[in-house]
Amino acid sequence: MELLQAAQDKKQHSYIKDFILGLGFVVLPLSENVGHRASIYIEEYSLNSGLRAGDAIIAATAVENNMMLVTGNAKHFKPIKDLKTIIFRP
């Protein structure tokens, strides 16, 4: 969802979808636990760090699935203590 929203046209949408499928990425479901954790993150971090809903859902998905989050934008995720991140620099 985050990648698709950055696309500027349908051709880029198609390219992003092919990229995700081609590398064997698994799209994880938005479960009740993920939604609950994301809402807690918004309550805890949105006022002081500007955490937005999309990033809260991404962080909650990683934590709920015991996964590391690879990101090029660590600033958005830095305040979330239980989230493990790896900084991606292309």
Describe this structure in words.
The protein has helices at 2-5, 10-22, 32-49, 53-64, 74-77; strands spanning 69-71, 85-87. The mean pLDDT is 91. It has a two-stranded parallel sheet with strand order 1-2. The chain has 2 domains: 1-28, no CATH class; 31-90, no CATH class. Helix content is 57%, strand content 7%. The chain is globular and about 40 Å long. The longest helix has 18 residues, at 32-49. It has 5 helices and 2 strands; from the N terminus they run ααααβαβ. It has 90 residues and is mainly alpha-helical. It starts with a helix and ends with a strand.
Summarize the structure.
Helix content is 57%, strand content 7%. The protein is mainly alpha-helical and 90 residues long. The chain is globular, with a radius of gyration of 14 Å.
Question: Which secondary structure elements does this structure contain, and how are they paired or packed?
Answer:
Elements: H1 2-5, H2 10-22, H3 32-49, H4 53-64, E1 69-71, H5 74-77, E2 85-87
Parallel strand pairs: 1-2
Helix pairs in contact: 3-4
Question: Could you name the key traits of this structure?
Answer:
2 domains
Determine the mean pLDDT: 91
Number of helices: 5
In angstroms, what separates the terminal alpha carbons?
Answer: 20 Å
- What percentage of amino acids are in beta strands? 5-15%
What is the N-to-C order of secondary-structure elements (H for helix, E for strand)?
Answer: HHHHEHE
Structural class: mainly alpha
Residue share in helix: 55-70%
Shape: globular
Kindly state the number of beta strands. Answer: 2
Total number of distinct structural domains = 2
Largest sheet: 2 strands, parallel
Nearest-angstrom radius of gyration? 14 Å
Could you give the order of strands across the largest sheet?
Answer: 1-2
Low-confidence parts lasting 5 or more residues at pLDDT below 50? Answer: none
